Amino acid sequence: MSAIRPRLRVHVCPVGFEEDRIVIPISELKADRVYLITKSGEDLAKDAVQRIITALKSQKLEPTVVCCDIHDLEECFCTISEILYREALEGNDVYVNVSSGTNILCIAGTMACMMWGGVPYYVIPKTYAPRGEPLHLGVKRIFELPRYRIFPPRRELISILGFISSKNRTVSHSELIAFLKSQGLIKTENEKLTRPSQSEYQQLENNFLRELRDERGYVVETGETRAKRVHLAEEGKTALRMFGFLVRS
To answer: Is residue 22 classed as helix, strand or coil in its secondary structure?
Structure first.
């Protein structure tokens, strides 16, 4: 019998100009794995990142550096969400430091925790540093923030949004049914039928379109009855950008 793999304590830490507020909690909370989120390309915080990496290596940790546009909320949310989602699938506990990066990164980290069940924590520093040094020195207190759950759209819905987007045009109900059948998401009663059955249209409406259109506002329909065409609303385009990793992973 194979041994049960222990749950890892994973820390996700946005990096700005903080060092102690990242390194000390990782040590005190006994992290097993660390992700450092930083800006793509050249960045003023690059030296801070290198010092943090050196400090973590002294704790026998090899942090993973993940780059994104730290001023883009959607990209920050997607970057952190993908880490949380992947680690949760492995059964690990994920903690997100929401005090160490840009405001956008901290907001994105809090949102991602609410969505994927991570634990956001905030670090109160001991002192403010002199000008030109890291923003804060030492750590006075670490505390978890309240956890309020919000729930992501179903993977199947994101898959439909991806299909519509890939066509770069409006799509018909029959095209959606064919796609869903290819994914095993619609039950068919008679494989010999060349056109979708009434049951398949009902499944499309009841199981997918109603939520996409009425509850979430991700798609818009034009036309009447079975001649209706479907295209992405702005909310749907945003959802595909933020949750597209669900159908890529």
So the answer is: helix
Using alpha carbons, select from 64, 13, 45 the residue that is nearest to residue 134.
45
CA gap 124, 141 in Å, rounded = 5
Fold that domain 9-144 belongs to in CATH: Rossmann fold (3.40.50)
Structure tokens at 129: 């540093």
pTM surpassing 0.85?
Answer: no
Q: Residue 178: which H helix or E strand, with range?
A: helix 173-182
Secondary structure E strands in the chain = 9-14, 33-39, 64-68, 93-97, 119-124, 127-128, 136-137, 141-144, 171-172, 219-222, 229-232
Strand order of the β-sheet with 33-39 is 64-68, 33-39, 9-14, 93-97, 119-124, 141-144
CATH number of 155-248: 1.10.10
Determine how many CB atoms are found less than 10 A away from the CB of residue 71.
Answer: 12
Closest listed residue to residue 66, CA positions, set 90, 93, 89, 84 = 84
CATH 3.40.50.10770 in the chain, residue ranges: 9-144
- Length reported for the chain: 249
pLDDT in tens, the chain (249 residues): 455 678 999 999 999 888 899 999 999 999 999 999 998 765 667 888 899 999 999 999 999 999 999 889 999 999 999 999 999 999 999 999 999 888 899 999 999 999 999 999 999 888 766 555 555 667 777 766 666 677 889 999 999 999 999 999 999 999 999 999 999 999 887 666 678 888 999 999 999 999 999 999 999 999 887 688 999 999 999 999 999 999 876
Burial category of 13 from C-beta neighbours within 10 Å (exposed 0-12, middle 13-18, buried 19 and up): buried
